[in-house]
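Example record used in the benchmark description.
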Amino acid sequence: MLLIALVAFCAFPLLGCESGTTAEQSSESSSESTEHTYRVAMVLNDSINDGGWGSSAYQAMCEAAEKRGWETAYTENVEQSDWVTVMQNYCDQGYDLIFAPSGQFADAVQQVAEDNPDTHFMILSSEVTSDNIESMLPNLEQIGYLAGALAGLLTNTNQVTFVGGVELDTTATKAAAFEEAAKIVNPDCSVSIVYAGSYSDVAKGKEIAEAAISSGTDVIYGDASAVDSGEREAIQDHEGVYDIAQPSDLGSSDDDVIACSIVTDNEVMIEQCLEDVENGDFGNKVVEGSMEDGTIKVGTFSDKLVSQEIQDEFAEYAKQIEEGTFGQ
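Model output (structure tokens):
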């Protein structure tokens, strides 16, 4: 009953409605239609304001839902032990689609989807599918290649570091592509790959960055949501050290820390899943996103940190990555 009350109370777009570790919010899109109004709910293990993957995925869901006239809701900061319960609550309330923004949710999604065959589920960065599950998979190699190529061009010490959150297959794929690309553009480059074991431990991110910098790293690419904020805190105290951000465009042309962002815009893939629900052909599908459809793109360069020469050289590599000729 509490869940229903909270969702009903938060009837206006993007107004906060938080309660402990299960903050919830819903936004109702205006519609003159008396037909069925579709609803999608997102379950997050972190905050929608984590500055990383969670906030980017939430924003993409809202934008896709607004385009198609869907209502949205979310529950954030959910402990793993409660994932199934929170998803089941949304099923019981009659939500059409439940959104899990990470492959970490795969087991929970499969369990709840099996128990609720009339509810649809979409999961990001995973290849789990069934009659009522669709997966969304951005091109992980393109993401890793872009970040690695830029890191290899930027480094002056020939040492760069990739920081992952949890060692999932998807993260490992990006890390491998990152290392490969850095060494293609700079054969003298040494690459370290470190996992924080978390997506929310800001202090751990700062600790990892400090250790990497003391070992000679001068470019860090974080793929760990809030952990990345800690990395940037450490970088602020070290001149000549650069951050490559993700998944949103977090930098600016005069940024002192973020050299550039590798952007993953999940809106296109999410909207495809919403459309599949509406059309009655949802399920047993992996919806892919890439540079070609605008899901993956290069963000804003800091002109203070990245010379025009490096920007131009990187643009050539980015073109090769999009065309599939990089490293050939």
